[in-house]
Amino acid sequence: MDQAPIKESFKNHSAVTTSEAMNTELVGQLRTLGLNQYEAQAYLALTQGGPKSAGEVADIGNIARPRVYDVLDKLQQKGFASLKSGRPVKYAAMPLEEAITTLKKHKEDRLMDEISKIDEMSGRLAKQLSTSGTSKRYNIEENVWTLRGRNAIYSRLAQMVDRSKHHVILSSPPDNIARKINDNLPHFEKAKNRGVKVHVLSPISKLLDKRHALHSPNSHVSKIVTTLMDRHVPTRMILTDDEAMLFLTNDHTLPEDEVGLWIKNPHISSTLKELTLAKK
């Protein structure tokens, strides 16, 4: 029996299967960029050859015809397609690099708009709270807050450093110290320029990598640190003039699961400062 037709059929089937798998993967990647299923399928259809009519895109991209014009319109808005005048009207795929640049610009504009709204809202809210008497009634200036997630904790850390006038004390493992300073570098640099002393307590004797930021004299971290003490303190913490931040989770906790205890109290901050900086 001649096996050639069977082999040829299997070869063609394998090619189709491979092509479908690639398309599925490409559609998935395009969706992570912000396109929906139909938009991703339409963009892939447009990349196959030259400009195409809406009907051709619907056929090649397996898109319902009543939907294809809306899909192509959205692709134009997102910068992934352009319209070619004529009869019939045809569409062409924009180069991916150019489409990505447009997409990033759209996302940046939306993000800046959201940030502006947050700033505006926080300003109104702060003004309302300051006139409501709530702050005085509950003495928020000497309160205790629990913060969840590294973003919230680092936002508070940055505010603490910005408000510091005399000292900032960091107690944490070496890698954590480097991350805290690097992630909030502009705040630490401004504090350093104001004359704020940055003291670090960390078990650096256990640090084998001599290229580490705490060892390297040319690193941003080393330039920020005023005093580096080889000391292990069980609790990770950040202290400033009259504020304290205590980490309630260990240093291997996922960023979104981190929990911090923030305390605004000069007495507690001063006490912890004396305990941590006391000579052995």
Tags for this model:
Arc Repressor Mutant, subunit A; about 280 residues; 11 helices; 2 domains; elongated; about 55% helix; about 15% strand; 3-stranded antiparallel sheet; alpha+beta; Endonuclease, Chain A; 7-stranded mixed sheet
Note down, in words, how this protein is organized:
This protein is elongated. It is of the alpha+beta class and 280 residues long. A hairpin with a 5-residue loop joins strand 2 and strand 3 (90-93). The protein is built from eleven helices and ten strands. It has two domains: 4-96, Arc Repressor Mutant, subunit A, CATH 1.10.10.10; 142-277, Endonuclease Chain A (Endonuclease, Chain A, 2-Layer Sandwich). Residues 6-19 have low confidence and may be disordered. The strands form two sheets. Strands 4-10-9-8-5-6-7 form a seven-stranded mixed sheet, sandwiched between helices. It has a three-stranded antiparallel sheet with strand order 1-3-2.
Please report the first level of CATH classification, the CATH class of the largest domain.
Answer: Alpha Beta
User: Would you tell me the overall average pLDDT?
Assistant: 82
State the separation between the terminal residues, measured CA to CA.
91 Å
Computed over alpha carbons, the radius of gyration is 29 Å
The largest sheet, given as strand count, sense and whether it forms a barrel, is:
7 strands, mixed
What is the string of SSEs from the N terminus onward? Answer: HHEHHEEHHEHEHHEHEEEEH
Please list the strands of the largest sheet in the order they lie side by side: 4-10-9-8-5-6-7
Total domains, how many? Answer: 2
Protein structure class: alpha+beta
Which stretches are poorly predicted, pLDDT < 50 over at least 5 residues?
Answer: 6-19
- What is the 3D form? elongated
Strand content: 15-25%
Using DSSP, what is the number of strands?
A: 10
The CATH superfamily of the largest domain appears as Endonuclease Chain A
Would you identify the CATH architecture of the largest domain?
A: 2-Layer Sandwich
Number of helices: 11
| Helix content percent band | 40-55%
